[in-house]
Amino acid sequence: MPGTTTEKLVANINYACGSGLADCRAIQDGGPCYSTDIIKVANYAMNAYYYSAGHEDFNCYFDGSGRIVYDDPRLRISLMKQTGSFMKQAGVLEDTIEFEV
């Protein structure tokens, strides 16, 4: 959740990775998803826990600091740009709006 403290994110990482359910090897130093960005690390750990624990809403609660996101807004924007370009080429749209994310 927006506004979650660093301390809470670290606690979530420790809980998720220490549970024995989430495989957190990828976010360890030298792993393919290793990052110094605590938000990215927490996101990975919390997602890994959620999926391994059974996709239940309560597995994403993390004491009020987690939430289920059903789509990635970056993906939606990318798809909109691709669809807009395709529709423009097909003659359906006269113009598209280009923007950076």
TrEMBL record:
- Residue ranges occupied by any X8 domain in the UniProt entry: 1-86
Supply the SMART domains for this chain. X8
Protein name as catalogued: X8 domain-containing protein
Q: Does the keyword Signal apply?
A: yes
Any keyword Signal? Answer: yes
Keywords annotated in UniProt = Signal
Q: Which organism is it from?
A: Zingiber officinale
Annotated Gene Ontology cellular components are: plasmodesma
Q: Name one Pfam family in it.
A: X8
Check the record and name the InterPro entries matching this protein: X8, X8_dom_prot
Q: Which Gene3D superfamilies match?
A: 1.20.58.1040
Enumerate the PANTHER family for this protein: BETA-1,3 GLUCANASE (PTHR31044), CARBOHYDRATE-BINDING X8 DOMAIN SUPERFAMILY PROTEIN (PTHR31044:SF130)
